[in-house]
């Protein structure tokens, strides 16, 4: 879709990893469609994951007791957040679709990506009260998790030892992305690439590239409890 803007938030240390291949496949396919693709390569950027007082460039509202949530909210309203946060927020604001590419760490995102979410998706930018979930400030934008796992698909089934993969997606897709107003597309999960053959890994990349050919035709999931946990 020519004219569409895509942000890929990429969190992997190794360019030759499967995550790196999936990221490159997305850039190539979406660029071929005429999309403008921006990549935030968090490790290459040496992105700061810690939410600290340094994120506030102006005076804090309460110098005696520091509350990050309160001060980030005030700084967001006053445009006095640190430049790295403002730069990432601008990328999000301009994007029609945000793709998060990462390996699953402990049923969640790597720390550097968690820090990106903590610092960038702050109150005042991504949500406010009562402007959250379907009324979140990022409504109208699409978000998609593309991730790799260490365990097999069988282990992430309802009968598997790790439980259905949808269980670990609840805090990420619902509690974070949907909370901020994103419409969430079905995740792209590449199971256990470290235990796969070279041909199987190539098939994972090809499957992702093929899906992206029609990504703009996809409908978001119903991001409510039944999608994750059943009726």
Question: Could you give the distance between the termini?
Answer: 36 Å
Give the uncertain stretches in residue-range form: none
Radius of gyration over all CA atoms, rounded:
18 Å
Shape: globular
Q: Structural class, please?
A: alpha/beta
Q: Which range best describes the helical content: under 10%, 10-25%, 25-40%, 40-55%, 55-70% or over 70%?
A: 25-40%
Mean pLDDT: 97
What descriptors fit this protein?
single chain; 231 residues; alpha/beta; 6-stranded parallel β-sheet; 7 helices
Description of the structure:
The protein is α/β, with parallel strands linked by helices and 231 residues long. 35% of the residues lie in helices and 13% in strands. The protein has helices spanning 18-32, 68-78, 83-94, 111-120, 165-178, 198-212, 225-229, and strands at 5-10, 36-41, 97-103, 142-148, 183-184, 188-190. Strands 1, 2, 3, 4, 5 and 6 form a 6-stranded parallel beta sheet that branches. Helix 5 links the parallel strand 4 and strand 5 (183-184). The mean pLDDT is 97.
Please provide a brief summary of the model:
This protein is of the alpha/beta class.
């Amino acid at each position: 879709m020519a004219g569409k803007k895509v942000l890929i938030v990429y969190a992997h240390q190794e360019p030759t990893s499967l995550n790196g291949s999936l990221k490159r496949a997305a850039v190539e396919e979406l660029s071929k469609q005429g999309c403008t693709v921006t990549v935030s390569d968090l490790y290459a950027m040496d992105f700061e994951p810690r939410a600290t007082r340094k994120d506030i460039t102006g005076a804090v509202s309460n110098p005696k007791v520091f509350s990050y949530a309160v001060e980030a909210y005030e700084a967001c309203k006053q445009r006095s957040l640190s430049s790295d946060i403002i730069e990432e927020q601008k990328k999000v604001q301009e994007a029609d679709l945000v793709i998060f590419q990462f390996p699953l760490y402990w049923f969640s995102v790597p720390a550097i990506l968690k820090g990106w979410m903590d610092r960038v998706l702050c109150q005042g930018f991504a949500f406010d009260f009562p402007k959250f979930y379907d009324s979140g400030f990022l409504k109208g934008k699409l978000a998609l998790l593309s991730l790799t796992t260490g365990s097999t698909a069988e282990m992430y089934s309802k009968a598997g030892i790790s439980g259905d993969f949808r269980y670990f997606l609840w805090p990420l897709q619902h509690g974070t992305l949907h909370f901020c107003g994103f419409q969430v597309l079905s995740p792209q999960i590449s199971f256990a690439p470290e235990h796969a053959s070279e041909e199987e890994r190539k098939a994972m990349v090809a499957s992702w590239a093929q899906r992206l050919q029609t990504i703009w035709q996809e409908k978001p999931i119903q991001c409510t409890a039944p999608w994750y946990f059943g009726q």
